[in-house]
Write a structure and sequence with these properties.
heterodimer, A: alpha+beta, Uridine Diphospho-n-acetylenolpyruvylglucosamine Reductase, domain 2, Uridine Diphospho-n-acetylenolpyruvylglucosamine Reductase, domain 3, Enolase-like, domain 1, 3 domains, B: alpha+beta, Aldehyde Oxidoreductase, domain 4, seven-stranded mixed beta sheet, five-stranded mixed beta sheet, 18 helices, globular
Chain lengths: 324, 767
């Protein structure tokens, strides 16, 4: 059952921001996560601020510098099938195409996908866990087969977004507005690890909204992909995912940005993999080294040790695929 | 055969008389066997079908149930004062309320709990219930009830339940009765005579029914008469339980269950929620609707127990089986209900020496309920994979190995013959249609992807039979009513029933209106479970239609001055076999016109004595395994089914496809996850985390290959059951296909990437 709340549908960003001062206001993009969170009593609210009537937050269009602007309320489905995205931003296109299910992709927005709450079953369930204000992370000693192998610290969630690691790999930046100011936050710096604060997921303040996401122009020689492994073929979050954005000079990897999903409480940059592959032609020995580097420093819990093999296997598969 | 209590029927089952005369088998059919869309498809698709969940009555209140959040606790106090004062609240009940102190969970004459039990033995046990003007008010009110619990130690792992220091679930220890044992021959001698022996341990996980329509009821009193709209597989059992609980004459309770959004066995027994709705409805003197939220449908409305099964099989080097030793262990939850699995291990293959043992234990988890072939898919998972292991050791093709050892009679006592047994045809025709030989020869490896094929054989042991009573009314205008008590649980019961009437009388299907599943207006039928609705009720439908036909031909014979035996009914026209000039259109039969209608009654005749009836099946599948990530892709599936005559090919196919999808869930994606070490609570009681297969998880190609051989010795329609057989061998076939791809069996279902990676890693370490 949902709590009682008032629902406002302002037609401008300025008006929307003015509502955010109100008690526990919550933003309604596509509502796919909001409804679940309210029903599961993850949080409550008295005012739901819909962004659906705000034209300036919509759209997918090229920017003056050859990049791409994703309006905050562009849907995942719109992004997945956008010809510019498909042609130039392979990791994002792949990621958007495997989010949740067709219904959820039609409804969910890109900013909502970046800001969604964790899917940890203790957090979503009837457990007063650390992230919800309780004392302990139940996953640490409990059923942690889906949980993180990097960056756990005090809370062992994995970040649920597929598009976040892809956007981070593409070097995307969020534009953020509050009633008093606006600022830019790189997607790779958007999320907060538990070591900083186990009770928040993003650096956004309560009165801030992501208004758009800007992706730089795809460099010449860019090959990018995203792939996730999951327990079922649709409507499922990543057990492990790999976003690759590799810039090739001929057959040589000139630069690389590699992010993992299903690995850590935030989209996890695999710096070791980047180091292992830059300057190489992705020969088999390099790929073997990169696979090992993927899990270097991982700290699996009692039930998620399989993720070590899984990430190694997935990285190998994905590097082989992008090489050819 | 199977657990005889698996399909417990609430209340008495009336005997029915035999038909007179015996109807004989169909020789040729024109409607039966075709592809007939469901006669209620429009209602179901357009939303005009009123499911119990859709029922809305004037002045209706909405109920909600407060449940224990702990795996094991004792209620020290309940304070409902605040809840009772809340706006809109019209009734609040607990164990202390008048009429609510009711024993519950009966088994063999003994009760194991109560409607509201102060001793809560699993997460979700009922603590209190509220009825209020709106659903929100009801939920607010249950949240306002203050309960003080003494939280007690729990055990939710069935392998820990029998340890000496395990917390007791029921008095008398956590062993649920004595182990159930079947024996034949001399096991030791059988293994001594074997040239090859394989022993393996397999396990399955607890699977949840997860019907789309949640469990629930609407209850309404009219003086001392009670009407219940219930999402149930059988209205008559609910009627009798409610009459007993409220001390009413059975005739004063009306239960209606016209549509039902999925049950799979979970809706065979009367729900506590039904009783609570009725108690609160009487208190408030208003109708009460009480449907469970989704979470409760995971924790308290039944499941298929997870089992651990150790199978040891011996064979001669020529492939002849010499001994089968089978041990199964599982938990059916906190209340008595068997977790046995062993029937197929005992009887699927001809083997002189056999022993099976089923151990069921209590744990602090929700009680199991029958789930689509209770115990059988689990047994199949272990038995059929062990058979493949043995075939590999013997160097034999798995299909050939099975064919060599198939059952030819039921090896019980001196042996019992079958009324029909097409299992060999299921295997041979299925293998041919699947392209088994070619698939076995094809290249397995493609980069890091490996392909494999697997097969599994099975039987189902619940044949169905009397009682069933059906009434058919033929109107003078050539339309008909069909009146039967059976619930159509989404499988197309109404449609095949109309097809049978159409076959016998020539009335087009669209001119037949089916009345069903209403205790006040339709005839007694047992619940739709056990895959027995077709074999139990279709013969009565046919007998009723034939009764009408006999009467009609009698009237026409008088009018045409001939004998009924000289006449035949074709396309609603009565024609003499000897003199085609003698004929009457239906509307010309004078006595029918005077009466307006003809009413016929049909019964289900007894099953043949000294013979047994099983449906049989073999399924085949091809999978692709990603050896880097452990992902399985199911490429194609074929089900070859001996369920006797096919009544409606369309719904027959769909039963098989649905059974396969559910079996894919058991084998690959579905698993109840409990917080074993900390709280004992279920952590994935939602559709995100409890992973029912999506359309992308089932095979690209599903093929249904009916053997379609009428079993005319069994009943007058030649039919056997299908709903459960369709899911029995599915997971095992996947397991065998994965083993064919990898060279090793992954023993613990579901085969998630984690399990496959574990197999690959073990292989790597051994290499």
């Amino acid at each position: 059952m949902l709590p009682k709340f008032s629902h406002v549908r302002p037609d401008s960003l300025r008006k929307a921001l003015s509502f955010l001062d109100e008690n526990e206001a919550r933003i309604h993009g596509g509502g796919t996560d909001l409804i679940g969170c309210l029903r599961d009593r993850i949080f409550t609210t008295e005012t739901v601020v819909s962004l659906s009537a705000i034209n300036e937050l919509r759209g997918i269009e090229p920017t003056a510098d050859g990049g791409l602007r994703l309006g905050a309320t562009a849907t995942i489905a719109e992004i997945a099938e956008n010809p510019t995205v498909v042609a130039g931003y392979g990791a994002l296109a792949d990621a958007a195409g495997v989010v949740a299910s067709p219904q959820l992709r039609n409804q969910g927005t890109i900013a909502g996908n970046l800001c969604q709450k964790p899917r940890c079953w203790y957090y979503r369930g009837d457990f007063n866990c650390l992230r919800k204000g309780g004392e302990i992370c139940y996953a640490y000693e409990g059923e942690n087969q889906q949980h993180c192998i990097f960056g756990g610290d005090t809370c062992f969630i994995v970040h649920p977004s597929d598009t976040a690691p892809a956007l981070a790999a593409h070097g995307a930046v969020c534009r953020v507005s509050s009633p008093s100011a606006s600022r830019s936050v790189a997607v790779e710096a958007l999320h907060v690890p538990p070591s900083v604060d186990p009770r928040r997921e993003t650096v956004l303040e309560d009165d801030e909204i992501i208004t758009e996401i800007l992706i730089p122009k795809p460099p010449a020689g860019l090959r990018a992909s995203y792939r996730k492994v999951r327990d079922r073929a649709s409507w499922d979050f990543a057990l492990a995912g790999v976003a690759l954005a590799l810039v090739f000079d001929g057959d040589t990897v000139a630069s690389a940005r590699v992010f993992l999903s299903g690995a850590a409480p935030v989209p996890w940059r695999a710096v070791g993999v980047e180091k292992a592959i830059i300057g190489t032609e992705l020969d088999n020995a390099t790929i073997d080294a990169a696979a090992l580097a993927t899990v270097d420093g991982a700290e699996p819990l009692a039930k998620n040790g399989y993720k070590i093999e899984l990430f190694k296997g997935l990285m190998t598969e994905q590097l082989e695929a992008i090489r050819s | 055969m199977s657990d005889e209590h698996a399909y417990h029927i609430d209340g008495a089952v009336p005997e029915t008389p035999e038909n007179d005369p015996d109807s004989g088998a169909w020789r040729k059919t024109v409607v039966v066997g075709t592809r007939q869309p469901k006669i209620d498809a429009y209602e179901r698709v357009s939303g005009t079908a009123v499911y119990p969940h859709d029922v809305s009555l004037p002045d209706m209140l909405h109920g909600a149930i407060l449940r224990c959040p702990h795996a094991h606790a004792r209620i020290l106090s309940i304070d409902t004062t605040e809840a009772e004062k809340m706006p809109g609240v019209e009734a609040v009940i607990t164990s202390k309320s008048p009429g609510a102190d009711i024993p519950w969970y009966e088994r063999g004459g003994q009760f194991y709990g109560k409607l509201f039990d102060d001793h809560c033995r699993h997460e979700g046990e009922e603590v209190a219930a509220v009825a209020a003007e709106t659903p929100l008010q009801a939920v607010d009110a249950i949240r306002a009830i203050k309960v003080e619990y003494e939280v007690l130690p729990f055990v939710v792992d069935d392998d820990k339940a029998l340890l000496p220091d395990a917390p007791a679930v029921q008095e008398g220890g956590n062993m649920m009765g004595e182990p159930s044992v079947r024996e034949r021959g001399d096991l030791a001698a059988g293994f001594a005579a074997a040239d090859v022996i394989v022993e393996s341990t397999y396990s399955t996980s607890c699977q949840i029914h997860a019907p789309l329509e949640p469990h629930g009821s609407v209850a309404k009193w009219d003086g001392n008469k009670l009407t219940v709209w219930d999402t149930t597989q059988g209205v008559f059992g609910v009627q009798q339980t409610m009459a007993k609980v409220f001390g009413l004459p059975i005739s004063s309770v009306r239960v209606i269950g016209h549509y039902m959004g999925g049950g799979f066995g979970a809706k065979l027994e009367t729900g506590k929620y039904t009783v609570m709705a009725a108690i609160m409805s009487r208190m408030a003197a208003r109708p009460v609707k009480l449907f469970l939220p989704r979470e409760d449908c995971f924790t308290v409305t039944g499941n298929r127990p997870g089992n651990t099964m150790t199978v040891k099989i011996g064979a001669k080097s020529d492939g002849t089986l010499t001994a089968i030793d089978y041990h199964s262990h599982g938990s059916a939850g906190a209340y008595r209900y068997g977790a046995g699995t062993s029937a197929q291990a005992a009887y699927l293959y001809t083997c002189p020496n056999m022993r099976t043992e089923d151990v069921s234990v209590y744990t602090h988890t929700g009680k199991a309920r029958p789930m689509r072939a209770p115990g059988f898919p689990q047994c199949s998972w272990s038995l059929e994979q062990t058979m493949d292991e043995l075939a590999a050791k013997l160097g034999m093709d798995p299909v050939e190995f099975r064919l060599q050892n198939l059952l030819t009679e039921l090896q019980r006592g001196d042996g019992m013959p079958f009324t029909s047994n097409q299992l060999a045809a299921c295997l041979t025709e299925g293998a041919k249609a699947f392209g088994w030989e070619e698939a076995k020869k094809a290249e397995k490896q493609q980069g890091h992807l490996r392909r494999g094929v697997g097969a599994a054989a099975s039987f189902w042991a619940y044949p169905g039979g009397p009682p069933s009573t059906v009434v058919v009314k033929l109107f003078a205008d050539g339309s008909a009513n069909l009146n039967m008590g059976a619930s159509d649980i989404g499988t197309g019961t109404k449609t095949w029933a109309a097809m049978i009437v159409a076959e016998e009388l020539g009335v087009p299907v669209e001119k037949i209106l089916v009345e069903h599943a209403d205790t006040a207006t339709t005839q007694y039928a047992t619940a739709s479970g056990g895959s027995k609705t077709v074999p139990s009720d279709s013969p009565a439908v046919r007998a009723a239609a034939m009764d009408v036909k006999q009467q009609l031909l009698g009237f026409a014979a008088e009018q045409l001055e001939t004998t009924p035996g000289d006449l035949k009914l074709e396309n609603l026209e009565i024609v003499s076999r000897t003199d085609p000039e003698k004929n009457l259109a239906l509307g010309e039969v004078e006595r029918l016109n005077r009466r307006g209608l003809l009413m016929g009654t049909g019964y289900r005749d007894p099953n043949p004595e000294d013979k047994v009836t099983f449906p049989f099946a073999a399924q085949f599948c091809e999978v692709e395994v990603n050896t880097r990530t452990g992902e399985i892709r199911i490429l194609r599936f074929l089900g070859a089914h001996d369920s006797g005559r096919v009544l409606n090919r369309l719904t027959f196919d769909n039963q098989v496809f649905g059974g396969m999808a559910m079996g894919i869930g058991l084998g690959v994606t579905e698993e109840r996850v409990l917080d074993r070490s900390q709280t004992g609570k279920m952590v994935n009681a939602n559709f995100h985390d409890y992973k029912i297969p999506t359309i992308l998880d089932v095979a690209d190609t599903h093929v249904c290959h009916p053997i379609d051989q009428p079993d005319n010795e069994f009943n007058n329609t030649g039919t056997k059951g299908l709903g459960e057989p369709a899911t029995i061998p599915t997971a095992a076939a996947i397991g065998n296909a994965v083993a064919d791809a990898l060279g090793t069996h992954a023993v613990n279902a579901p085969l998630t990437p984690e399990k496959i990676l574990e197999v690959l890693r073990t292989q790597e370490m051994e290499a």
